[in-house]
Amino acid sequence: MGEKGRFSGVLFEYCMEGIIFFSEDGQILDANESARKSTGYFDELRMCNIADILPEIFYLNEGVLEKKKHLVPGEAFQSVAYCKNKLCFPIKIKILWETDDTIANTSRTGICIFVDISAQVAAKRRKEEADEVMEQANQLRDEFVANLTHELRTPVNGIWGLATDLKKSPLTQDQQEDVDIIMHCCNNMTAMIGNLLDFSKMEANKLQLEEREFSLKGLLDKILGVYRPQMSRKGLKLVVNIASDLPEKVIGDDLRLEQIFLNLLSNALKFTAEGYIALEVLITKRTEESIELFSRIIDTGLGISEDKLELLFQRFSQVDGSITRKHGGTGLGLSISKKLVTMMGGVIWVDSKLGKGSSFSFTVNLKTTTHRRKELGEMPVAQNNKAVREWLEPEEPQNGRPERFIKIMERLAISVEMENKEKAEAFAEQLKAMIPEEGKELWRAVLRVQMDMRKADYVRASEDMERLQELTELQECALLWE
Ligand code: ADP
User: Would the CB of 188 count as within 6 Å of ligand 1?
Assistant: First the structure.
């Protein structure tokens, strides 16, 4: 007899599971300690029928044991076990049948193995109750925030209206400045109220995008019209680089897109005391139906330390309490922007160095109008270029092949070195198309090189290229394709 055989008696008696053997007519033949104790029958258990313990599974029909449900031998399921005092407890159970061929007429012995799952069931119930309470509390909070923000708008609008009237009356220089401060405060309040309102909508999953036809250029002009005077008042230089090939009209939620721009630009303005703020807007992908708009807002302001970057897009997160007290804000703007960007099928990210400045980039997808779609009937510039096509042939871009990725990356590196914008554009596009969903960081690294090349900033492009190569090695690129 092996070790298993020698100890099987001890295992049966003292294991944590309850084990009951019963005959074909349900009579309990033997039960281990756990089964005897948990049912409260102790030694009397041997005088019971299995139908007394498991009435949800078995019943006796004129002395014959019948099943109430279909049983698959060895398959675990949930049920309840009844105790001597008629109380029951939840169990996870398996039922098996053993045939004893040594006995004439071949009789079968039923084996039931069960574990008491009262603790798990109680914990699950407690969690469900807690979730329900939390859900109610959240609902109340959302309603409260929605009402409060709504109520706050009225007095702020009142103050704004009175200040506007006051500004028109004859005032001394000092009084003029005071009224300007009042109006500035009103503006800040309105922005904060708007953020709180959006936040409550976002939490309640009620933030929705609308679709309208609008002029991208018109939108950008409007935004710049708001920020240009503010920046020059602060002595900051505004650098604008907007691609000339933006479609005349696009379809999307212009107000929400404006909100993303305003949030990033007002942060740049808020956290930059000297230097410049740059706004870059380009198209990074075109299909027949849509464009991918890429925008980057760079500032030479306070910057953000590396360990805080991760937190930035989380709600209520502000990098530094003292700065916030000085500049105001709710810590909601970036989380709302992130939500909006995601809803528009894009991504948002930040690069920053403490004391040097920040660069916030985002992409969004916008539909093109039918008129524009016709215009875009041709191939994208890069793919249309014969020289580039020749260099790429005979291989076709293909997903799932890291070695091809590395090869194209090498070609991108050469194009950067040779300062060949066209080829770099084509290879960057190919690389981006090969990167799976999970490789966002890699995708951004490629985009950076692409953007640098478009701006003919070759020094930066080769720095970013190095970073891209490091990242590819670091992430053991192959993993991305597994
Ligand atoms: P807030 O309304 O407080 O500005 P945001 O979500 O827009 O909320 O920003 C969160 C925090 O991120 C800010 O409080 C600030 O600490 C930091 N931050 C955002 N943009 C910049 C920037 N351009 N430069 C430096 N810090 C920034």
Answer: no
Q: How many CB atoms are located within 10 Å of the residue 303 CB? A: 19
Residue-wise pLDDT for 75-114, tens only, equals 999 999 999 999 999 999 999 998 866 655 668 899 999 9
Domain 208-377 top-level CATH class:
alpha beta
What does the DSSP assignment read for 114-152?
EEE-HHHHHHHHHHHHHHHHHHHHHHHHHHHHHHHHHHH
**Where is pLDDT greater, at 87 or 390?**
87
Q: Where are the domains of the chain?
A: 3-116, 130-206, 208-377, 384-478
CB of 138 closer than 6 angstroms to any ligand 1 atom? no
Measure CA 233 to chain center: 38
Which CATH superfamily groups domain 3-116? PAS domain (3.30.450.20)
Three-state DSSP at 276 gives strand
Q: Over the stretch 181-200, which tens digit does the pLDDT of each residue have?
A: 899 889 888 888 888 888 87
Q: How far is the CA of 318 from the centre of ligand 1 (A)?
A: 6
The pLDDT score that the predictor gives to residue 378 is 37
What are phi and psi for residue 98, nearest 5 degrees? -115, 130
Q: How many angstroms separate the alpha carbon of residue 138 from the centre of ligand 1? A: 26
pLDDT at 291: 93
Does the CB atom of residue 199 touch ligand 1 within 6 A? no
What is the architecture of the domain spanning 130-206? Orthogonal Bundle (1.10)
Alpha carbon of 270 to ligand 1 centroid (Å): 8
Per residue in 335-344, pLDDT (tens digit) is: 999 999 999 9
- 318 close to ligand 1 (CB < 6 Angstrom): yes
